From TrEMBL:
The keyword Lyase does not apply. Signal peptide: none annotated. This is Uroporphyrin-3 C-methyltransferase. Keywords: Coiled coil, Membrane, Transmembrane, Transmembrane helix. Residues 56-83 form a coiled coil. The chain crosses the membrane at residues 23-42. InterPro entries: HemX.
Length: 331
């Protein structure tokens, strides 16, 4: 019979440790460390990118501020230049006004010295009539006849007559006469005379051109071609240059005639007729010579002559006469 001790089985041994759980644990730890490192690196990269963007934004702001400063400096510089130009114009006006004040002071001094003269008893009305007549003659000689020298002499005589008037009421009139006389003295040669002189020089410089190679070849042609070449002349349809001596002589005569007509139009101040005659003269030049630098120079000379004015432009002409009549009417 077995004892109870015999029926009790011996205690079982503990199970061996599981290696797979430790490996998974360390794998999870490594993954966590890698995820943490990646997250930390990503945060650091984002931080650096934010710093780079902030630096770029700061650089853009500084560049924009610098451009604004440059624009402001340019604006200030332009404003300074405008102020300098305005100051220069103001100084010029002030100089002119000062010069006018000096002239007026000299005229006042002259009038006061004449007023202090006990012997000043002249026919003022007669002097004013003579002044008005001289001013009218000077203006008409310049406008009608284009006589610039005659107008200058008339104004000089009017100034001498007006100097004999002691009335201070005509002080501004004397100053106006001085300014108008100065404007006439500044004028150069009368435009109509200059245009006619250039036309005369152009007409004297014209001459028949030398024989062309075609004419020389015609001179050496056979007798039958020389005999019948006068009656029949075969040329291309698009040729407009005169090659025959008779044609060239007629074209040169037509050119001389147009220049003469232009001179006559300039003498009577007919601007339309003057320019029309020179335009027709250009056609005769094209008829006389083939395209060449000499032809272009001659055409340019004709166009330059056509652009010349035929009348003087004096904006202040007649100002003294008008002021004199107003003063006499008011008096």
């Amino acid at each position: 019979m077995n004892s109870p001790l015999d029926t009790v089985s011996p205690p079982s041994a503990p199970p061996p440790p599981r290696r797979g759980s430790a490996a998974w644990f360390w794998l999870i730890v490594v993954l966590l460390l890698a995820a943490g490192g990646g997250w930390f690196g990503w945060r650091e990269w984002q931080h650096r990118q934010a710093e780079v963007r902030a630096a770029e934004a700061d650089a853009d702001q500084r560049l924009e501020a610098l451009n604004q400063r440059l624009d402001t400096m340019r604006t200030n510089q332009e404003a300074q230049n405008r102020r300098l130009v305005q100051a220069d114009n103001t100084n010029r006006v002030l100089r002119d006004e000062l010069h006018g004040i000096g002239q007026r002071a000299a005229l006042i001094e002259d009038s006061v010295s004449k007023l202090a003269d006990p012997d000043r008893h002249g026919a003022q009305a007669m002097r004013l009539d003579e002044t008005e007549l001289l001013l009218t003659l000077g203006q008409q000689r310049l406008l009608i006849a284009g006589d610039l020298e005659g107008a200058r002499r008339a104004y000089a005589l009017a100034g001498g007559v007006l100097d004999g008037i002691d009335d201070p009421a005509y002080l501004s009139l004397r100053q106006t006469l001085l300014q108008e006389s100065a404007a006439l003295k500044e004028l150069g040669i009368e435009p109509r005379v200059q245009a006619m002189a250039k036309l005369d020089a152009l007409a004297q410089g014209l001459s028949l051109p030398a024989a062309t190679p075609a004419q020389a070849a015609a001179a050496e042609a056979p007798w039958w071609k020389r005999a019948f070449g006068v009656l029949i002349d075969v040329q291309p349809r698009d040729r407009s240059i005169a090659t025959h001596p008779d044609d060239r002589a007629a074209a040169l005569a037509g050119l001389q005639l147009e220049i003469t007509l232009a001179r006559a139009a300039a003498e009577r101040r007919d601007v339309e007729g003057y320019r029309a005659a020179l335009k027709r003269a250009e056609a005769w030049v094209l008829r006389l010579s083939p395209p060449s630098p000499a032809q272009q120079r001659q055409l340019a000379q004709l166009r330059e002559l056509a652009a010349l004015p035929l009348s003087l432009s004096v904006p202040t002409l007649g100002t003294t006469l008008q002021q004199l009549r107003q003063l006499r009417t008011a008096g």
